[in-house]
Amino acid sequence: MKIYQIQALKDNYNYILHDERSRITAVVDPSEAAPIVQKLEELDFDLDYILHTHHHRDHIGGDNGLVRKYDCEIVGPSYDSHRIPGMSKELKDGDTFLLGESAAKIFFVPGHTLGHIAYYFAKSHALFCGDVIFSLGSGFLFEGTPDQMWNSLKTLRSLPEETRIFCAHEYTLENAEFAMQFEKDNKALQDFVAQAKQKRARGEPTVPSLMKDEIACNPFLRADLPKIKELLGDRSLEDEVALGKIRHLKNVFKTEVLR
Ligand SMILES: [Zn+2]
Known about the structure:
Layout: E1 2-8, E2 12-19, E3 24-28, H1 34-43, E4 49-51, H2 57-60, H3 63-69, E5 73-77, E6 87-91, E7 96-99, E8 102-108, E9 117-121, E10 126-128, E11 133-134, E12 137-138, H4 146-157, E13 164-166, H5 172-182, H6 187-201, E14 209-210, H7 211-217, H8 226-231, H9 239-258
Parallel strand pairs: 3-4, 4-5, 5-6, 10-13
Antiparallel strand pairs: 1-2, 2-3, 7-8, 8-9, 9-10, 11-12, 13-14
The structure holds zinc ion.
């Protein structure tokens, strides 16, 4: 399966997925139609599926324009069937979605929203996780609880460490500011951020990142480590409580930076 990364809006990433044998093509979370149409025409691909991780506007904004132009089916979480217009194929935890001969396992990963799903293409080592894991961060808890998000993060963290995480936003350097302040002595994090800065300076994306690196560097995936709980001031914290505290610290941190 070929993966094409397209920048949309200010800092969204949309992805075109193409199964070479069948020539079946999908787009993941199109923010707007124009850049997707342009890329599809350049590649001479038709569009068969629009795949959604969740219902947010910046992930479905391209649907209308694409449906008008292509005979394609809208696919997404069954939980969001009432809030993703035009959805005709519903997916839930444990389902398999077939893009031609490329198979994706579906994980139900609530927290950012209550219906969020992720698509894992094992053969391609590719995870499309929307706004659940970002490089060095994780999506806001708009609808779910720390408990739900922690379970979702643990589910995704259990995937092979060579898994490439195709998240939906270029937030890495912003997230790095919090992560570096929070876990000051993490050498792997320092090296990772130095590389991310070089990539951005060259105008390259920092996404996808590897699960291995996120496990070593991303504070949200490290909430259950004793050293992280110590930084939070209490070694006996439940894992999901630790995650909630990291979420809170990051929210406050961001507000302070924006001020
Ligand atoms: Zn979102």
